[in-house]
Amino acid sequence: MAEEQELLSLAQQWAPLFKLMGDRTRLSLLLAMHHRGPGEATVSELAETVGVSLPTASAALVNLAENNIVESFKEGRVTRYRLVDEATHKLLHHLGGTHAHS
């Protein structure tokens, strides 16, 4: 019984992240950021990398930022994003995500 409760708790813990990553655009953006490494990328750089429009990328990144997966910051008139959630970072490795410097 305790083991079953632990499994249910684990599912409850991971379900929100899997829901976010279940969207192809969000997952593609996360993999692109992960591949770039610890640096930051602009919305336009990420949109170009994954082949989506700027508004689509922007909306997906805002959603990820609202869920504390990525962090945004302004650099002049440009908004940059970086992956900040360690659990997501580890999960991307398990999915086969690589770093450019690997």
TrEMBL record:
Matches recorded under CDD domains: HTH_ARSR
Keywords per UniProt: DNA-binding, Transcription, Transcription regulation
Any GO MF annotation of the entry: DNA-binding transcription factor activity
SUPFAM superfamilies: Winged helix' DNA-binding domain
Keyword Metal-binding: no
InterPro entries found in the cross-reference section: ArsR-like_HTH, HTH_ArsR_DNA-bd_dom, HTH_MetalResp_TranReg, WH-like_DNA-bd_sf, WH_DNA-bd_sf
Domain HTH arsR-type: 8-102
UniProt-listed PROSITE patterns: HTH_ARSR_2
Entry-linked Gene3D superfamilies: Winged helix-like DNA-binding domain superfamily/Winged helix DNA-binding domain (1.10.10.10)
Pfam families: HTH_20
Signal peptide from the UniProt entry: none
Transcription recorded as keyword: yes
Protein name, per record: HTH arsR-type domain-containing protein
